[in-house]
Amino acid sequence: MINLLLEIENLFVYYYSLGGIIRAVDGVSLAIERGEFFGLIGESGCGKSTLGNAILRLVPPPGRIVAGRIIFDGEDLLHKSEEEMRAIRGNKISMIFQDPTAALDPVYTIGDQIIEAMLAHNSISRKEAEKRAVELLKMVGIPRPEARLREYPHQLSGGMRQRVVISIAIANNPDLIIADEPTTNLDVTIEAQILTLLDNIRKKLNTSILLITHNIGIISEYTDRLAVMYAGKLVEIGETESVLVDPKHPYTQGLLGAVPGRGGRKTRVMEIPGTVPSLANPPRGCRFHPRCPYATEICSKEEPELRTLSEGRIVACHLY
Length: 320
What we know:
Blueprint: E1 4-17, E2 20-33, E3 37-41, H1 48-55, E4 63-72, E5 75-76, H2 82-88, E6 93-96, H3 100-103, H4 110-119, H5 126-139, H6 145-148, H7 158-170, E7 176-180, H8 188-205, E8 208-212, H9 216-222, E9 225-230, E10 233-239, H10 240-245, H11 250-257, E11 307-310, E12 313-315
Parallel strand pairs: 3-8, 3-9, 6-7, 7-8
Antiparallel strand pairs: 1-2, 1-4, 4-5, 9-10, 10-12, 11-12
């Protein structure tokens, strides 16, 4: 039985600038089940991070959520007051931001920032919160956690700061964790530890994870389902193994063709010609058609709708 935690319905997020309206998220719909590890991939600038920020209603100015619905645990977050959203952020929904330096306050100690996240949403003493903070730092692989609590962000390496951000995100056992490139600053060995940790937390607490990343290897190893995003729109959704073995959309095929070593050591890495179009002035019709090897006349005139091809596989392409 499907138990949906998050449903995004026809979501539009635009940035209003002097250069025009940037359609960062343009009619996106997807659903994440409770306890699911869901991946979101696509080139830089396609709107992935904006979608993650929109779920928490943290789209920075001049951005604005123009239309759509974000149903979390049966309630539309777009109808919540700011006070109600503060009770949700960091509690029921947490976010691991891509840049840990910007996510941490330089004038507060590591301990203060982890403890604050717990005291804001729980009726516990500071002593209990401090004990929990030490446990969290141990969980994310930070040595001498008792001493680290009294240090400031600038005293830690980029990788250590990222682990602190992750510890804050999991402090209140949230129902949904939005991880925006959570392992960008980590060594490969620590990357595996962190992702395994997140996966274990997901399984233990039935937490859902939305993983935003460029890393196909991480996607293949950890996620249950994935969505492929291009120029503000979703082009393919399906079970991870199914999509990676048999990608349907030409853009998905291009992304996977650019992965070194895929299909055997002697397979040549293929590039996708051209660049991601401007979201202020996207191409008419299918946004991928200027770069697509299979484009026909209809692709430049008519925007393809998402269609269900088989159980769980959804694709937006005129080929189907």
